[in-house]
């Protein structure tokens, strides 16, 4: 879910005055949180907040659109990001203040067990930058590094990686039916953990991809619309979007969150809500 287009989201900070005897810090003295180049979105495992992986760290966005972060003060460029159970995995590039132990210039695979407050190096630190990273229902990690087109698979939380098929994929998602890739040649499907793929001839050309809890696929097509898979394996266009989509995530059966020219956008059966517009 990696869309490399700039987005700036600013939040309004409250001005609090507690007395006249000392100098007070006002909202104009504090730089508001800034989100740019959104690469991925996931639901915080602890509740309804969103975790937004960006060029300058991972931020929290509440259901009302309040933005805070970067979490833990970590300023790395989270090019790849995924959540499995209560563990966060990321990849990308170090920021100006990123701890040296996480790797340079590339992060490889790093892991957080406290929802982004602290991070630990796992593997490939310093050498590899995953631009595509996802996790399956069983915790298996799948990724594609920026330096190649080989699918990589890890069954031990990112410690060791096995090469699969060579695919030029922009996004990956795993369901109980297998691994799917949004690739240049169309929607690809693998039932052997990415060793081989076959093309789904019925699918539109997609560049983002995710799935509902029941395994129904959704994605954004090159025509600028959201597409969903029907039970008979045909596809239906749902809604036209505005501009290129930077990130796309199916949060639950009835909730989609994405980033396009309108900002961070939530789509439900009740309608479309702009959680945080670009300002």
From TrEMBL:
The UniProt record lists the keyword Transcription regulation: no
Origin: domain of life: Bacteria
Cited PROSITE patterns: PROKAR_LIPOPROTEIN
Record keyword Signal present: yes
Xref: InterPro entries: Glycosyl_F510_1955-like (IPR054817), WD40/YVTN_repeat-like_dom_sf (IPR015943)
Signal peptide: 1-21
The entry's keywords: Signal
Protein name: Photosystem II stability/assembly factor-like uncharacterized protein
Species of origin: Homoserinimonas aerilata
């Amino acid at each position: 879910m990696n869309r490399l287009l700039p987005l700036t989201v600013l939040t309004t900070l409250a001005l609090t005055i507690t007395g006249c005897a000392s100098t007070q810090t006002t909202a104009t003295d504090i730089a508001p949180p800034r989100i740019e180049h959104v690469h991925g979105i996931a639901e915080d495992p602890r509740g309804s907040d969103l975790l937004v992986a960006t060029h300058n760290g991972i931020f929290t966005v509440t259901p009302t659109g309040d933005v805070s972060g970067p979490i833990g003060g970590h300023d790395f460029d989270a090019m790849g990001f995924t959540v499995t159970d209560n563990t966060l995995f990321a990849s990308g590039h170090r920021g100006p203040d990123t701890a040296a132990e996480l790797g340079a210039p590339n992060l490889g695979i790093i892991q957080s067990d406290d929802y982004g407050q602290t991070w630990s190096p796992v593997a490939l630190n310093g050498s590899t930058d995953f631009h595509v990273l996802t996790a399956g229902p069983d915790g298996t990690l799948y990724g594609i590094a920026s330096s190649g087109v080989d699918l990589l698979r890890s069954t031990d939380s990112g410690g060791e990686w096995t090469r699969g098929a060579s695919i030029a994929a922009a996004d990956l998602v795993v369901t109980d039916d297998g691994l799917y890739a949004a690739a240049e040649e169309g929607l690809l499907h693998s039932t052997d953990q990415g060793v081989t793929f076959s093309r789904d001839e019925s699918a539109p050309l997609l560049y983002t991809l995710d799935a509902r809890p029941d395994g129904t696929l959704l994605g954004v097509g090159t025509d600028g619309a959201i597409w969903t898979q029907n039970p008979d394996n045909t596809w239906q266009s749902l809604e036209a979007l505005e501009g290129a989509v930077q990130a796309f995530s199916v949060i639950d059966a009835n909730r989609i969150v994405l980033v396009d020219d309108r900002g961070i956008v939530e789509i439900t059966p009740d309608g479309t809500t702009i959680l945080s517009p670009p300002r």
